[in-house]
From TrEMBL:
<dbReference type="InterPro" id="IPR050189">
    <property type="entry name" value="MFS_Efflux_Transporters"/>
</dbReference>
<dbReference type="InterPro" id="IPR036259">
    <property type="entry name" value="MFS_trans_sf"/>
</dbReference>
<feature type="transmembrane region" description="Helical">
    <location>
        <begin position="179"/>
        <end position="201"/>
    </location>
</feature>
<keyword id="KW-1133">Transmembrane helix</keyword>
<keyword id="KW-1003">Cell membrane</keyword>
<feature type="transmembrane region" description="Helical">
    <location>
        <begin position="29"/>
        <end position="53"/>
    </location>
</feature>
<dbReference type="Pfam" id="PF07690">
    <property type="entry name" value="MFS_1"/>
</dbReference>
<feature type="transmembrane region" description="Helical">
    <location>
        <begin position="312"/>
        <end position="331"/>
    </location>
</feature>
<feature type="transmembrane region" description="Helical">
    <location>
        <begin position="285"/>
        <end position="306"/>
    </location>
</feature>
<feature type="transmembrane region" description="Helical">
    <location>
        <begin position="258"/>
        <end position="278"/>
    </location>
</feature>
<feature type="transmembrane region" description="Helical">
    <location>
        <begin position="126"/>
        <end position="143"/>
    </location>
</feature>
<feature type="transmembrane region" description="Helical">
    <location>
        <begin position="352"/>
        <end position="373"/>
    </location>
</feature>
<keyword id="KW-0812">Transmembrane</keyword>
<feature type="transmembrane region" description="Helical">
    <location>
        <begin position="65"/>
        <end position="86"/>
    </location>
</feature>
<feature type="transmembrane region" description="Helical">
    <location>
        <begin position="93"/>
        <end position="114"/>
    </location>
</feature>
<feature type="transmembrane region" description="Helical">
    <location>
        <begin position="379"/>
        <end position="399"/>
    </location>
</feature>
<dbReference type="InterPro" id="IPR011701">
    <property type="entry name" value="MFS"/>
</dbReference>
Length: 405
C-alpha cells in the first residue's frame, strides 16, 4: 500500500506527481466502489417496498417511511460527522464511514422488526453525504486544478452507475430471492470498499489547525450557503419529475407498466452521460456549468410537461432530465473552492442539500397531483424550482463579481 501523504489542499500537485497515473486510477476506483454501494443501497429499497411491507405486515406507504428515515440520516449525518470528525485523517474517516455503511446494511438485512429496520436505515444513511464529500476532496487532491471536476465526476460515477446497474440488479434479486439478500449484497460491497480504501488510498495527516469550530466556519461563508441553496432548490425539479415517473408513464403516456423499468434505465443513462459531460465542462467553467444546467433543466422539464402524452417524447425527456445531473461534479467542486479551510463540512453538506432537493421536489410534485393537475404537471413544478435555483445562482454570481471589483 502506498504511504505517500495526500496534501490537505485541493490543488495538490506534489501528491499528483508522487503517485503514478495507475495508483491515482486505483484510488478513484476504490472511492467509486463505495459510491456504487451507497447508490445501490439508497435506491434499491424503492423497488422492494412491497416485499418489505409483506415481511413486516405493514402497508406499502408505511414501508415507505424507511426511505424517509434514510434521507433524514443523510441530511443529519453529513454535517454532524464532518464536524465531529474534523481531527481525523481523511483516509481513517473514509474507512469509518464505509464500515458504518457496510454494517448498517447487513444489520438491516437481519432486522427482526419493522421498527428496528427503520432505525437501521437511518443509521445507514448517516455516512452517505460525508463519504461522498471526503471522497471528492481526497480524489481532487491528487490531480492538477484543471482536472479536479473530472476526477470528482469519476468518484460520483459509482453513484450514477448504481442507478443504471446496481439498483435494477439488487431489485431483481431482492424480488426473486429475498429483499434481505439485496441489503446483504450491498453490505458486502461496503466491506469490499473498506478493503480497497485500506489498500489503495494513501495515508494522510490531519491538517494543521483542524477543529470542529473551523469546520463550522463553512456555514459563515455566504458562497457556501448560496451554493448549497442552488443544490437544495434548483435541483429539486429532477426529483419532482422522477418521483412520479411510474404514474406519468402509465396514466399519461398510456404505456404498460413494464415500460416503467425502461424509463428508469433511460434516466440512469442520462445521469451517467450528464456526469461525464458535466465534469468535463466544469473543468472549463464551474459557474458556467451550474448556470447552464439550470437553464437546461427549465427547458427540458417544461418540454416534459408539454409532451408527456407522447411515448417517444417522454422517453427523450426522461433521458434529458437525467442529464441534468451534469451539475453534480460542478457543485461539489464549487463547494470545495469557496469553503477555504472548512472543505470537509462544505463538501459533505452537498449531499444533504441534494436530499433536501429530493424531499422538496417529491413533496411539491405530490401536491400538484393531489390538486388534480395530473402527473405531467410535475415537470412544471421542476421548471419553477430550477428557475428559483437560477435566482440563487445569480445572487452567488453577483456577490462574487462585487468582491472582485
Amino acid at each position: 500500500m502506498s504511504q505517500i501523504a495526500v496534501d490537505d489542499s485541493i490543488d495538490s500537485a506534489p501528491a499528483c506527481e508522487a503517485l503514478s497515473p495507475m495508483a491515482i486510477a486505483l484510488v478513484q476506483l476504490a472511492l467509486a466502489c463505495g459510491g456504487f454501494g451507497i447508490g445501490t443501497g439508497e435506491f434499491a429499497i424503492m423497488g422492494l417496498l412491497p416485499n418489505v411491507a409483506d415481511t413486516f405486515s405493514v402497508t406499502t406507504p408505511q414501508a415507505g417511511y424507511v426511505i424517509s428515515a434514510y434521507a433524514l440520516g443523510v441530511v443529519i449525518g453529513a454535517p454532524v460527522i464532518a464536524v465531529l470528525a474534523a481531527k481525523m485523517t481523511r483516509r481513517s474517516l473514509l474507512l469509518l464511514l464505509m464500515g458504518i455503511f457496510a454494517v448498517g446494511n447487513i444489520l438491516s438485512a437481519l432486522a427482526p422488526t419493522f421498527e428496528i429496520f427503520t432505525v437501521m436505515r437511518f443509521i445507514t444513511g448517516l455516512p452517505h453525504g460525508a463519504y461522498f464529500g471526503v471522497a471528492a476532496i481526497v480524489a481532487a487532491s491528487m490531480v492538477p486544478v484543471h482536472k479536479r471536476a473530472r476526477t470528482v465526476g469519476r468518484v460520483m460515477l459509482g453513484l450514477t452507475i448504481a442507478t443504471l446497474l446496481g439498483t435494477p440488479l439488487a431489485t431483481f434479486f431482492g424480488q426473486s430471492l429475498d429483499w434481505r439478500a439485496a441489503f446483504t449484497s450491498v453490505g458486502v460491497i461496503g466491506l469490499v470498499t473498506v478493503a480497497l480504501i485500506w489498500y489503495y488510498v494513501p495515508r494522510d495527516q490531519v491538517a494543521d489547525g483542524a477543529s470542529f469550530l473551523r469546520e463550522l466556519g463553512a456555514f459563515k461563508r455566504p458562497q457556501v450557503l448560496l451554493t448549497l441553496g442552488i443544490a437544495a432548490v434548483g435541483y429539486g425539479g429532477m426529483f419532482a419529475m422522477f418521483s412520479y415517473i411510474a404514474g406519468t408513464t402509465v396514466k399519461v403516456a398510456m404505456l404498460p407498466e413494464s415500460m416503467v423499468a425502461v424509463m428508469m434505465v433511460l434516466f440512469g443513462v442520462g445521469m451517467n452521460a450528464g456526469n461525464i459531460v458535466g465534469s468535463w465542462l466544469a473543468d472549463k467553467s464551474i459557474m458556467g456549468t451550474i448556470g447552464g444546467s439550470l437553464v437546461f433543466n427549465i427547458v427540458v422539464l417544461t418540454l416534459f410537461s408539454l409532451t408527456a402524452s407522447s411515448p417517444i417524447m417522454l422517453a427523450i425527456c426522461v433521458f434529458l432530465v437525467g442529464c441534468g445531473f451534469a451539475a453534480g461534479p460542478a457543485l461539489q467542486t464549487r463547494l470545495m473552492d469557496v469553503a477555504a479551510d472548512a472543505q470537509t463540512l462544505a463538501a459533505a453538506s452537498n449531499h444533504s442539500a441534494f436530499n433536501i432537493a429530493n424531499a422538496l421536489g417529491a413533496w411539491l410534485g405530490g401536491l400538484v397531483i393531489a390538486w388534480n393537475y395530473g402527473f405531467a404537471a410535475t415537470g412544471y413544478v421542476g421548471a419553477v424550482l430550477s428557475l428559483f435555483g437560477l435566482f440563487v445562482y445569480a445572487a452567488s454570481l453577483r456577490l462574487e463579481r462585487s468582491r472582485r471589483a
